[in-house]
């Protein structure tokens, strides 16, 4: 038997949001169109790919002590801790040959 969303507080909230999203229309008529010059000057936002291939998003579980250490070292080196993890693994990979 399928559970009804309306039977819980969270379900009612979700249903209410769905209804509001479906009925709401956004009026864009007061926004002027972009010129060719504006479009040409735009750039992509986000992290650029490093190297030949873009990096892959993964999930990893680390011990809290290890994560605290990585974050502390990353702060000292002024790099993001995920980049530090990548650098440490890459250096180990090069050592292994």
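Q: What amino acid sequence fits the structure above?
A:
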């Amino acid at each position: 038997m399928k559970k009804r969303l309306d039977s819980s507080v969270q379900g009612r909230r979700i249903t209410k949001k769905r209804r509001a999203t479906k009925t709401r229309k956004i009026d864009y008529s007061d926004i002027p169109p972009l010129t060719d010059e504006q479009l040409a000057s735009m750039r992509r936002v986000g992290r650029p790919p490093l190297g030949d291939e873009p990096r892959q998003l993964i999930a990893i579980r680390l011990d809290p002590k290890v994560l605290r250490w990585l974050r502390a070292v990353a702060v000292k080196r002024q790099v993001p801790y995920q980049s530090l993890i990548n650098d440490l693994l890459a250096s180990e990979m090069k050592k292994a040959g």
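Q: And what stands out in the fold?
A: The first helix runs from residue 9 to 23.
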